[in-house]
Amino acid sequence: MVSNAQCINGTATAHGHIGIDLSTHPTPVVNTPKNTFIEICMSKVPHLYKCYTTNKLFSLVYVVIIFLISILYGSESSYIGAIMAGFTTHSITTVLGYWIHVVFHMVDFTALYENAKKSTNCVASTLSRIFAWVPRRISTVVDNIMYFFCYYILDFHDKHHHNTNINKRWYNVLTEAIQNILWEGGIIVFISYSLSLGLSIYGRTYRLNHTLIMLWSLYYVSYHLINYTFIKSPNTHNKHHINFETNYGPDSLDILFGTKYDIENIEDFNNGTINLVVIFVLIVICKESTFNSGILRYLGKILK
User: Fold this and answer.
1) Which of 37, 174, 186, 243 is the most buried (most CB within 10 A)?
2) Predicted confidence (pLDDT) per residue in 134-177, tens digit
């Protein structure tokens, strides 16, 4: 074992077990001080609390609606289980929506596809073999479809929505609305419904509440297209268009994940309470309606 004296003479120890010759490490590794992670987490608590108090009305109404939808439309056998599944659903939906938003800004899918075709890795060779196997006309069509999918769907948010010269055109606004519904919850409902996802704990099965997912998805798109457009009060979303690596929204997750543009500027989105209540009422009407409509029956089946 290397002694402290040996450390002073040029040999360091890693927790007193492994001797390291500092002469081979001209730049010693500087370890992060202990408890740094905990201190960072604790430093966010006041800002998260401020986010809640600033938006107390919205938060309280949203919690009440989560309780109501969980009890009314949860698939669990008990109210407590349904409520637990409801709040878990909300957490999963908002966090996934946040990270999908991040990915759309961090990844250039069009460039990724173009580079994959030119590179020499296994992906490129597979693509080349596929295109070589099928007739040229078909391979051209497939290539155009792939390009369209990357550029106009996966890269839409970054390349079109964030382009102020074209993002207000009606077809881009419509595409933004559809994509917000899809990426902020619609895709989760589709996967969950298709695969009948559930978590079994001690004989009880807990499932994602599709109604709550679509509530968040519709609220998200309505707030972005209505409140951010027609309510001219300062909002943090403007900063996202200035620096797309910040303010992905909602504020609580930006604070939690360290992507807030200005952590002292907490957004007041209490005006979104109206959106939330209206969407909740419309969903209940849709689910409880006895009107013989194929669309309503289909929506009710998906949102069960």
Assistant:
1) 186
2) 777 887 888 899 999 999 999 999 999 998 889 889 999 999 99
